Amino acid sequence: MKIIILGAGQIGSSVAESLVSEANDITMVDIDAGRLALLQDRMDLRTVVGSAAHPSVLVKAGAEDADMVLAVTANDETNLVACKLASTVFNTPTKIARIRSAEYLTHPEIFSPENFCVDFAICPEQIMTDYIKKLMEFPEALQVLDFAGGKVSLVAVRAFYGGPLVGQKLQELHKHVPNVDTRVAAIFRKNRPIIPEGDTIVEAEDEVFFLAAAEDIRTVMRELRRMDKPVKRIMIAGGGKIGRRLGEALEDDYQIRIIEHNQKNSERLAADLHNTLVLHGDATDEKLLESENIAEMDVFCALTNDDENNIMSSLLAKRMGAHKVIALINRSAYVDLVQSSGIDIAISPAQVTIGSLLAYVRHGDVAAVHSLRRGAAEALELVAHGDMKSSKVVGRKVEEIKLPKGATIGAIVRDMSASKRDGDYVNYFSSEETHDAPESDTRVIIAHHDTVIESEDHVIIFVINRKMIQQVEKLFQVNVGFL
Amino acid sequence: MNRLFAVANVLGKMVLVFGFTMLVPLCLSFWINDGAGTVFVESFLVTIGGGLFLWLVTRRYKRELQIRDGFLLVVLVWSVLPAFAMLPLLLFLPELNLSMAYFEATSGLTATGGTVLTGLDSLPMSINLWRGELIWLGGMGLIVLAVAILPMLGVGGRQMFKAETPGPMKETKLTPRIAETAKGLWMVYAGLTLACMVAYKLAGMNWFDSVMHAFTTLGLGGFSSHDASYGYWDSPLIESVAIVFMLLAGINFASHFLAWRAKSLYSYRHDPEVGLFFLILFGSCLGIAFYLWFVGVYSDPLTALRYASFNLVSIATTTGYSSTDYGLWPIFVPLWMLFLSGFCTSSGSTGGGIKLIRARILYEQMFREMTTIMHPNAITPAKVGGAVISNKIIFAVLVFLFIYTTSIVMMTLILALSGLDIVTSFSAAVACINNLGPGLNEIGPSTTYASLNDFQTWVCSFAMLLGRLEFFTLLVVFTPAFWRK
């Protein structure tokens, strides 16, 4: 695929990194020649220096025969104009834009083909906010990812002594909770994947990934570890875009304190948030943390732009007694470094947001992609098309499908409206909307070895190694020769 | 000196226009032949003559008014117009001296409603109509009216508009042009008055009374054409109509205007005062009714509720009607009612007092101080209705409250010094500064201000102007800096 990426920032470069390795032709456009040169040294791609919203620059980037334009510059307006240009001047089939401002996102009609021609608008800050919000709902989980518009969740949880299933075989799970259908998709023990079988024994410290319907998550988690008290008090360090959105999303349900070091910004925050205590100061100032009762906090989230600051303040908070600390870390090298050092959850924004971008880039019909374990593993929601003859999956039992070793079919969502992806201009909205929409005809089926896949099923597949993704995607492609 | 002449020029025009408002009672008087016709003709001619004289003499000095001139004009308008407005009363009632007549006219124009007259029932209808009309004109504001109908005020008009409109935040413009805003406000005001008039008629008043009382209800003034005020009808239906329209007049007219323009009630939800206004009054009515029933003033809870709600709403909205002598109730109740009159009405309404929005701002500021004690690093902007109140406004409100309390204390002391008892002095100070009307004891609901001597009457007149112009506008004219070249 020929893809033009506009903007070589954090998001742009991590998307590029992930797409280059999947044999795509990438052209990057940015106004900063130095940044492009750095990228070109590291990756096999073409770069063009210039404004992303100028037709001549787009021509130079090869917009005439591009399959996709990914507008992820820091500026919403540039992204919108670039998509409009790509559509009207170059007729590019797929246009994706990053839109950060809620002002635009609350009017999805401006993205329609008559207006700015944005096929998919993504808002990384909103995705991050949703991600962290989920973690507040399930404080025991390391990760909670939604599929099929929130009907099925993939939950990562660390097993601990005290959970009834710890030290038992997996098949016992069904006896413990007979009414709940769930499937353990993978277990990571000391960072190594284990393919779960019925007789696999769960050990303490294992990272267990399981799929379950949203309402069953808590029941399953209770099998694996002692449950914490529900989160009530949250301290957020950094009132930037994510901190602000998180505050807005959570302030009515939790007690929130936000520490922001910029005086002007903290005044604006305090003006916009109604139920949140905004503190002006430095999150690494232990006096401030102490006077604000850090020891009583259920969760401390370090969400500033500065990795080092986030790491230090969350380590400090943990040492001073915060129950659970979450740190936002952009550099992937740091993520591995700190995960075992006292920070409970390290979140990499690029990894969290890249999934929603990848879903549009992938071959075949992919409804959702979530990147797991810092990009090593992945969970996909694929749509099966065709019939017995044209497809390698439709009409077959799960055990008959020739999946590569390490890929597991976790769940199937049946009878979902097939037009889902076409109808939504704003991707992140879809999860919220379908959540509330009464879709009585949608059923979640936890996959067993004899479950038969039908056409238009959404199949949720867990892949422990990214290298297998292409094979999996190929399985789901409809064989044209038989048509 | 040129400056003064320029102000006098505009003042002359305003007096001239004001003179024409006398044509309303004049026509009525000749139509029903109630004997006050010649008085109105004389007053009309004097006012028109005075206005013309001022205007023509200073014609050469006509120029654009500066901000300072605006303040001076507002103060002059509000102190000179009562002098012309009192003419019919002064001429018709020989027993009235100058200070009493000026008091009555000021009380009318400032929508206070305290009266020095007795035997209201036997007064000519035209005189009573004139009293009601004064309240109606002054209620929404003389300058606002002038801005709406006369383009003569020019650029300075906005400043004068602000100098006269009650409330701490006057920056929001309802329409791009100030004259349109003023027109809009008067349209809503007039519309509500008309509705009130019809409602009173349907509830059982005669046409004359419904017109006169619609004027004084919407202006939140409280003049009545009967000595017994609403006790004259003793009708729960009429009292209910009065309650509804007093409540409406106690709401910011900007919200009415927006609601009327958008044809929806949405603007009231964004008004930071409306909800609180109803909450306070509703809670107080129920509480006072229960108390009156509990201590045995009324044996029937419903009767207690009826008297409590009418009198309480009337006093709290600074109207000043009464349906019974609430001065005879246990002292807590009238004091509570006086207390409510200090802050219950909304900014931009026709009521007096410090206005609910200021009370809310101070309340928020109190919490802000307390949060700062607990969290020294906290950033806690004072917010009212979701909007941040700047420190500048908070300071202005604090100073306002300081002047307000100081004024009440000073007026009380001055009146006490002049020989009044302390309850009368205090209630007179509160009632005049809040533009409320009746007080307690000697000036209670069953009596009038007639027992006050000349000096006390002038003090009360000054207090009413002070309250109506919200202190700053009036006091700034008395500062030396104002007159410095």
Notable traits:
A: alpha/beta, Rossmann fold, Alpha-Beta Plaits, 4 domains, 6-stranded parallel beta sheet, 17 helices, 31% helix, B: 485 residues, mainly alpha, two-stranded antiparallel sheet, 3 strands, globular
The greatest interface here is:
A-B, 16 and 11 residues
Average pLDDT, all residues of chain A: 82
SS-derived structural category of chain A: alpha/beta
End-to-end distance of chain B, in Å?
A: 10 Å
SS class of chain B: mainly alpha
Taking Cα atoms only, what radius of gyration of chain A do you get, to the nearest Å?
Answer: 23 Å
Tally of alpha and pi helices of chain B: 23
| Strand count of chain B | 3
Strand order of the largest sheet of chain B: 2-3
**In DSSP terms, counting alpha (H) and pi (I) runs of 4 or more, how many helices of chain A?**
17
In whole angstroms, the N-to-C terminal distance of chain A is 24 Å
- Within the largest sheet of chain A, what's the order of strands? 3-2-1-4-5-6
Query: How would you characterize the largest beta sheet of chain B?
Result: 2 strands, antiparallel
Mind telling me the CATH class of the largest domain in chain A? Alpha Beta
Q: Choose one word for the global shape of chain B.
A: globular
Low-confidence stretches of chain B: none
CATH second-level architecture of the largest domain in chain A: 2-Layer Sandwich
**Beta fraction of chain B:** under 5%
